[in-house]
Amino acid sequence: MKSIELDYSKRCGEEPEKGHNRWHPDIPPVIEVDPGEEVVMQTRHAFDGQITPTTIADDLRGVDLGLVHPLTGPVFVKGAEPGDLLEVTIQHIEPAHWGFTSILPGFGFLRDVFTEPYLVHWEMNDGFARSPQLPGVAIPEASFMGTIGVAPSRALRQEILLREDELMRRGGMVVGPTPEGAVPAQEPFASEGLRTIPPREHGGNMDIKQLTAGTKLMLPVFTEGALFSAGDAHYAQGDSECCGTAVEMDCTLHVSFRPLKGEATRRGIRFPIFERDEYFTSPEMAAPRRFIAATGMCISSDGVNQSEDGTLAIRNALLNMIQ
After folding, report:
1. CB neighbours (10 Å) of residue 125?
2. 323 and 213 inside one domain
């Protein structure tokens, strides 16, 4: 077994030898591991210590998004090569006892609707998250890593930069490379490293709530050793981070790796896939017996039918759900 332990009194930038908050193929690995070897990794929450148990909602206006997301790693997996699939077995996730959910102005799917900061502090014990701010609410534990992936190759990094730049010119929401707050802080990582906000071919900020203990996640490998990293742990999450966050927390992740030789190339797999043999959480939460559902149509607020606009339909369904 090998481990990466953090000093939680410090931020990622104060321990750059143990983590990073940008994706770049040349960030040196923290440890090297054999296939099948258990790896134990402590991780920081998504905002890298900027939000603490004493933080209040108004403090969120000063949060530096340049520090998002601190990841632990990279881990060099011996034998992993470009064209392989890296099978990541999520063995166990040890949650913290405190977490939070926040709404940051200008951030999240409904950022134009919910424009004021909001913050809930959670106490996590005995398998549930509870908050004095939401009396009567108890959210069952279903811990997973919001951000988990491998390093992109140099070629993939360049391809991503070009397409995201083009998207930005079309008015899309894109956070391009920014040296402010970057870890590593030195060049070329600071100005060339990809931000961790969106998911991509190599994984990243996928926020898939089913990636709980027992999941096998398969990631296409783009660099020698794969260079695996993880962070942004969630105690629980709904079907998305519609407000921009889940129940955010620090955690300790237990994983192991197995390179599936040439399988990404042979099977034409471009994006991550995952599998499970059992429910990802308790059956009543994985497939609720009692529920309320909302629908949404692709009709804008001014009455225009935006045919086949799935994002608009989902947005309308979400707005219809909020009571």
Report:
1. 12
2. no
Q: What is the b/e burial string over 216-231, where b = at least 16 CB atoms within 10 angstroms of the residue's CB? A: ebbbbbbbbbbbbbbb
Q: Do both 262 and 148 map to the same domain?
A: yes
**Residues 202 and 309 reside in one and the same domain:** no
Whether residue 230 contacts residue 147, with contact meaning beta carbons closer than 8 Å, is answered with yes
Same domain, yes or no: 36 and 107: yes
CB of 211 closer than 8 Å to CB of 144: yes
Number of folded domains that form the chain? 2
Contacting residues for 248 by C-beta, under 8 A, at least 6 apart: 45, 46, 47, 51, 99, 100, 101, 102, 232, 233, 234, 235
266-317, pLDDT tens digit by residue?
A: 999 999 999 999 999 988 888 777 777 788 888 888 888 887 888 998 899 8
DSSP 289: S
Of 64, 72, 55, 108, the C-alpha closest to 250 is 72
Annotate 11-26 with b (16+ C-beta within 10 A) or e (fewer).
Answer: bbbebbebbbbbbbbe
Do 75 and 160 fall into the same domain?
A: yes
| Parallel, antiparallel or unpaired: strands 85-95 and 228-234 | unpaired
CA distances from 206 to 57, 158, 200, 210, 238 (A): 26, 20, 8, 11, 13
DSSP run (H or E) holding 318: helix 310-321
Cβ atoms of 61 and 175 within 8 Å: the answer is no
**What is the rounded CA–CA span in Å between residue 71 and residue 100?**
18
Backbone angles phi, psi at 33, to 5 degrees: -135, 155
Q: Among 5-14, 80-89, 178-187, 303-312, where is mean pLDDT lowest?
A: 303-312
Identify whether the C-beta of residue 77 lies closer than 8 Å to the C-beta of residue 86: yes
What are the φ and ψ backbone dihedral angles of 59, each rounded to 5 degrees? -65, -20
By the 8 A CB rule, do 33 and 257 touch? yes
205 and 310 part of one domain = no
Domain that holds residue 82: 2-289
